Amino acid sequence: MRWINYIAGGLAATALALCGVGAASAQIVVSNTAYAGTQSIEDVLSQHGQIVVAPGNQLNQYTLEISRAPASPTLTVVPKVYTYNAGVVGAVPIWTGAPVNVPSTVASTFTFSPGIPVTIGNSYVLAVDQQSSGELGRLNVGAPGNYLPADKVHYSLGSWSLSGLNQDLVFTATFAAPVSVPTLSEWAMILMALALAGGAAFVIQRRRLAG
Q1: Residue 6 has pLDDT above 60, yes or no
Q2: For a Cys-Cys bond, which of 11, 41, 79, 87 suits 97, CB 3.0-4.6 Å?
Q3: Which CATH fold would you assign to the domain 27-175?
Q4: Rounded to an integer, what distance in angstroms lies between the CA atom of residue 95 and that of residue 82?
Q5: What are the tens digits of pLDDT across the range 147-173?
């Protein structure tokens, strides 16, 4: 009968819908404020980063607003990502990108694409490092307390330190959406739907052979 066909099709569709993981939206962490100042890149403060908490299981990309200082003929920065735990930044970056030339004295948005796995809920530092001594640059900074944890870090005299200004770099970080895993009750529904669909298909097949 046709109704058996409809039931089988509906149950199969239900099972597929429960089993499949849809294309969820990316998780975006953003400094939702406009420019409020700059942080210098120089020989002493050669590296700066923004602390973020990962809302997804992969860091796809991040952006920073960077400019070359007028007194510096050139500026090249190297993007790096570090782990950040209990106030300590990992000494070795978990990702290092290709060097990027910063030609303009007007701040421009630079996008870096690590595409690396991260742990949801853990903290990471999205940084840029001065490649050559003697070069000068600036990173745009937002208002204090804009993003929580609202702070940036800098590298000075061989160690990392919190900025102490409770400010954020103007940044955007895009993470992959968390992958949803079916619960036990959803798995039960999936198995029941598959069993009913299989039974309906069996009945249909037998009726066709009997006819």
Answers
A1: no
A2: 79
A3: Jelly Rolls (2.60.120)
A4: 7
A5: 876 678 888 767 888 776 667 899 999
